Design the sequence.
């Protein structure tokens, strides 16, 4: 008999803890809507006690989603639980997710509590949360490094207090698959009344084993997987949603489980996460990487022509990749654009479509064909970036083998136009020096990457930068057929994200499972 595995998505919470991956409320709402379309069972919308910005985003997501269960994360204390409940209580299906660490190293050095105190805190937190909502999940932070008998006692207390889901996290990515499967089995067999709950697993990827550990746990009885799109998250990231879902779908003969995920929405969701966070998906990333369905070796190409299944264990259409794309150009109208955007997962209002259509026409005048990757950029720049403190109005650069690189820039800063010029080691350096001078910022450029969104000499260049200022780190992303303009857009986008972080500081004490 086929059993159901529930998909708990934490892209908006744990995923946002990737360095520089902070999202504004409009971006979170857009992504939450797409995650509901993808079919996730639970969406962990954020950590409401962490900041006013997080609270606001969780509240708006809770009010908007129609089917997906919306969870708010909170530490095992009344103040955090109250804050989480205030944020999710308007959801059609609200959930409180509370946690406390259980490993001896966390008890001694972080919590400064003994084992009995932690058991009491876990019980009291779950009991209080249960008085607010029927759906309560309890997590034992750093469970994979905890004493297993003590872990079962903590879980037993949480179940006795009313927890409906028990989560077993590998918080620091320490576990090995066979070891994690054994721990999962032990918890199932030795926790009092475990049959009354769903056992969930939440794995990190520090050793590159998050997906393997998750599947190993599912194989022995875990029935909820906590994941992020593209595997983003703190440090090396979290278990990848697409990898778990497609592994279960592709190897159903070995793991006879189903999920509620609409797999054809996987690729559009992956692209949206990448566009919003500015975190590029590595080309060889499983399932959603650019090379996942690419075949260059002659022997492979020959086999593919005869039967695609010779070298592909999944069909690209299964995750939403379609080779038969409608070609758009400068003569395309609003109807064709709306249809293509809907196919890509963007259901825009008439007002949003007008904004995107104007930007689409501007781009179509610069290049012959507009592909899906171009449209994603147009939507991101036209709709998702709703507030821009700094905006590029004009850029002129002169450079050459015998010319000192100079840049002239005009910016709009909160609606006020400023203009200036400066020089540098090259055209991009001079543009950045000018922008920094005009904005009065002093950020450090940690990373600068360039890639092409598609093939052809008229392809849009995509630039991603990582900036640091006063301890804050932000990613910036920009695209344009002109790579210098794309670089300037990326830098300004990064500066805007830094401004957002300055206005929405996260609590230094924020914790994670």
Sequence:
């Amino acid at each position: 008999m086929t059993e159901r595995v529930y998909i708990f998505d934490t892209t908006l919470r744990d995923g946002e803890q990737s360095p520089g991956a902070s999202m504004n409320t409009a971006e979170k709402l857009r992504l939450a809507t797409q995650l509901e379309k993808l079919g996730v069972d639970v969406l962990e919308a954020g950590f409401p006690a962490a900041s006013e910005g997080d609270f606001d985003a969780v509240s708006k997501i809770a009010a908007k989603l129609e089917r997906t269960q919306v969870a708010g994360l909170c530490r095992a204390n009344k103040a955090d639980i109250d804050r989480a409940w205030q944020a999710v209580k308007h959801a059609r299906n609200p959930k409180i997710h509370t946690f406390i660490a259980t490993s001896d190293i966390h008890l001694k050095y972080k919590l400064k509590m003994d084992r009995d105190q932690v058991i009491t805190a876990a019980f009291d937190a779950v009991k209080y949360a249960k008085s607010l909502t029927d759906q309560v999940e309890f997590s034992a932070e750093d469970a994979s490094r905890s004493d297993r008998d003590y872990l079962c006692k903590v879980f037993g207390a949480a179940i006795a207090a009313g927890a409906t889901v028990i989560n077993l996290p590998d918080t620091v990515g320490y576990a090995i698959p066979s070891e994690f499967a054994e721990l999962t089995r032990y918890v199932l067999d030795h926790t009092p009344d475990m049959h009354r709950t769903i056992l969930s697993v939440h794995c990190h990827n520090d050793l590159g084993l998050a997906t393997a550990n998750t599947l190993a746990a599912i194989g022995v009885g875990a029935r909820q997987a906590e994941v992020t799109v593209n595997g983003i998250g703190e440090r090396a990231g979290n278990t990848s949603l697409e990898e778990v879902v497609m592994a279960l779908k592709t190897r159903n003969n070995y793991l006879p489980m189903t999920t509620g995920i609409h797999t054809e929405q996987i690729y559009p969701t992956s692209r949206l996460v990448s566009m919003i966070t500015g975190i590029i998906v590595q080309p060889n990333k499983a399932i959603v990487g650019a090379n996942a369905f690419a075949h260059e070796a002659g022997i492979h190409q020959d086999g593919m022509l005869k039967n695609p299944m010779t070298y592909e264990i999944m069909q690209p259409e299964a995750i939403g990749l379609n080779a038969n794309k409608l070609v758009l150009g400068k003569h395309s109208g609003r109807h064709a654009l709306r249809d293509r955007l809907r196919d890509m997962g963007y259901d825009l209002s008439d007002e949003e479509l007008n904004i995107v259509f104007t930007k689409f026409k501007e781009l179509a005048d610069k290049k012959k064909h507009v592909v899906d990757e171009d449209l994603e950029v147009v939507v991101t720049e036209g709709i998702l970036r709703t507030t821009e403190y700094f905006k590029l109005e004009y850029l002129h650069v002169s450079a050459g083998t015998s010319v000192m690189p100079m840049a002239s820039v005009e910016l709009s800063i909160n609606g006020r136009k400023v203009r200036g010029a400066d020089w540098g080691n090259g055209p991009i350096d001079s543009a950045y020096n000018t922008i920094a001078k005009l904005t009065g910022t002093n950020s450090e450029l940690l990373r600068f990457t360039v890639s092409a969104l598609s093939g052809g000499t008229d392809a849009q260049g995509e630039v991603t930068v990582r900036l640091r200022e006063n301890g804050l780190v932000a990613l910036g992303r920009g695209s344009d057929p002109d790579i210098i303009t794309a670089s300037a857009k990326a830098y300004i986008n990064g500066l805007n994200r830094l401004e957002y972080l300055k206005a929405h500081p996260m609590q230094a004490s924020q914790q994670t499972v």
